[in-house]
Amino acid sequence: MPSTYSLHVFPPRLSSTSFLDVVRALRFSPVSDFSLPRAPVPAHLLLTQGVSRPGQVYVMERVPHHDGPETVLEMLNRPEGFFAFRPTEGGDVLLVSKVHTISVSVHRQAPISDPARLTAAKLLGVEIVLAGGSTLGGWASSELPAHHARLIDYLNATHDAFFAVWTHASTHCVNRGHVLYARPLD
What we know:
The protein is mostly beta strands. The protein has one domain (38-184). Helices cover 13% and strands 41% of the residues. It has helices at 19-25, 72-76, 115-120, 151-156; strands at residues 5-8, 27-30, 38-47, 53-60, 82-87, 94-97, 101-107, 122-130, 135-142, 162-166, 170-175, 179-184. A seven-stranded antiparallel β-sheet has the order 6-5-4-3-7-11-10. The chain has a three-stranded antiparallel β-sheet with strand order 9-8-12. Strand 5 (82-87) and strand 6 form a beta hairpin. The longest helix is centred in the first third of the chain and has 7 residues, at 19-25. The radius of gyration is 21 Å and the shape is globular.
């Protein structure tokens, strides 16, 4: 089995540190082979620069808070600043900044996977106008109490960076930092 090593740098002492002292502070140690399985999900990525690109994003095969794999929306709302994306046209995996991601769209992935929750959710028609002028129309699934089930309540219900807007064909995970405005379509 091949070994994987990581480089550890220890901060040098503030008093007269020589180059050799810094070199001696470097050491290599084996990294655990433990990792969580990831599943590829076909997606379209739209960044602040460029056009929508087809490829794959990777989600955890299991999460502790529900059955089944992680959703793309859950992956995007994790605290890490980057996610892996493999373009369809080939090449290396890209580590994409979430801050510069406008949206990630996936085909036929329901924003709410639990059928009981989905039937109880209120559908809100919405049109989103993104920075750059493009628009996205669809529905948001609000699981809020009836007296707080307006579009503004849905958009303000969480501090997560991404929220879901879906159509019959796709679910769009939209970065709220790139939304100019939203308009209810009821």
